[in-house]
Amino acid sequence: SELQEWRPVIYRKCTDTLWLLVFCLFWAGLMFITGYAVMAGAAERLVLGYDSFGNICGRKNTPVKGAPLSGQDMTNKKYVFFLNPCSLEMQSLKISSLSLCVSSCPQEQLNSLEDLQSFARNNGSFLCLYNLDVSSYTLNPKAAQLCPTLPVPASKSFLLFNRCVPQNPECYSKYASVLISMVNEMDVFHRILSGILAGRDTVIGLSVLALAFSFILVLAFRFIRTLLVHTLIALVVFGLLFVSGVLWWLHYDYRNDPSTELETEKENVKFLLGYAIFSTVVTVVLLFLIFVLRKRLQFTVQLFRIVGKIIGRIPFLLFQPLWTFLILVMFWVFWVAVLLSLGTAGTAQSTSGGQVEYRALSGICYMAWYHFVGLIWTSEFILACQQMVIAGAVVTCYFNRNKNSPPPHPVLSSISVLFCYHLGTAVKGSFLITILRIPRIVLLYLHNILKQKKNAKCLLKYCFCWFCCQESCLRYFNQHAYTTTAINGTNFCTSAKDADSILARNSAKLTSISCFGDFLLFLGKVFVVCFTVFGGLMAFNYHRELQAWVVPLLLVGFFAYLMSHSFLSVFEVTADAMFLCFAIDMETNDGTAEKPYFVDQELLTFVSQSNKLTEGQKHRSTRPFQDNEDGTELQPM
């Protein structure tokens, strides 16, 4: 069959327009969910707590129809106080006792109404209902019904949910038993939201730490040397061993802790065991690969020097991950804010006695799944745009005869081409990744449901691994499809077919070289994740009570990997685009005066030495060429 003609494209047309329209319609649905969550949700209720009259503690509230004590200004009243803390009962996931927002919890036991009155006047914390004036505590005949049950035990504020927890041993045991029952019966979705909100400062700090590690690695790879490679490998090995040891130690510590009663703490034990096993397996596999590939490190160093030379011609490529990261962070903040609002979406309805109950709205579960698909698809779309921008800039500079005078503004030119012509291609490629990720999430959900059926769990694990492998392969071909689109201006399917054809004919030459570079970059990502997760283990371990902190830790590890991938993908995409251009150059040109190569002599020598191409080049004149025209040159886009 006739070979694909690879020609420079100056006049382009829009590709995969229908997919761009579908993506816009999908985001219209996300905007509808966002508006719905903002109008119906109140994420602050998860952490700050609220009283029996619908007032969120620590905030200024709006009135609820039929509840005269609602709409109070609780800015200075940040703690939830139960009027009967020693006799709490659970009724339909709700605590039967009346609760109020107070400015401080009683530090000493209060035995009479006079003590309540004195405490209110001295501390400004009113423990009776809001409509009872402090001067009437001892005069109103109904004060016994409007004030807490006497004696009021001494209590302290509970930092996570801002509750006043009684310190009397008997009251504390009853209080804790009811609270444990309530938290255990909460669905996992709300417990995870509570953990994320409670550890939000730690999550933000760890994300900044991962950003710093990623930026340091980018600079290190830009000026890489052999000693630096050995140092990176040593740090990765140390980090993996240390994190694995800490995970096993924490699992042992949690499992043997007699106070582990809450469902969240039991979930922490299960997650820690899974993390420890996964980390140990990854450590063993990476140590084996490092041992096998230790003799090819020098070739990897040479590869990154060549890639660094290309990036040196386009220095603004190093800033591209920063913009991508900022966009991702803004989207993630938006996504988490909507998720928190969606998780607390409910209508405030007044009941008998002027109290308020929040009733969950129907259809929230389906909206949450739609919102989760939006997280995956949009994140992948942002990363795909970055890959296309880098690939377009590399292609422009590679197919340029004068290497000492690169085309002006290749990054800005590539960005303009992406937004004007090829956003649909990025949407389609990211959607294919998304439809492979969704079954993995469903399999994880089924795996948790079918805990007692071992045969079903084994089958689900096999399917999960299969989807992981398919996703890795698809990412590899997507990246080359984006590079092909940057060259030929074709749609996603045509570009993927052309890239697959050219790679199939040159796989023996380029696969082994590319693998070594990808492996070193993967070690860099492991380095960022390891040390970020270690910081998270140390930070979250100090807040064990009522927190599903292992799930936020998983979220931190996922974000750390995405950050490191976003930054280090500059080198990965540059290397892959360079090798694809090299393969095209070898097929299109023959090195003669009529059809000279575009490739640098340094890259040609490196590929020849790495794959022993010297003998194969003697027979290059016998291969058929696709045409007899002069070597083509890609102009600045």
UniProtKB/TrEMBL annotation:
- Give Gene Ontology CC terms: plasma membrane
Q: Looking at the record, which segments are called Disordered? A: 614-637
Entry GO MF terms: transmembrane transporter activity
State where the protein is found. Answer: Cell membrane; Membrane
Segments passing through the bilayer: 17-39, 203-224, 231-252, 272-293, 314-338, 381-401, 519-540, 546-563
Role according to the record? Choline transporter.
Name listed for the protein in its UniProt record: Choline transporter-like protein
Q: Which organism is it from?
A: Sakesphorus luctuosus
Q: Which gene encodes it?
A: Slc44a3
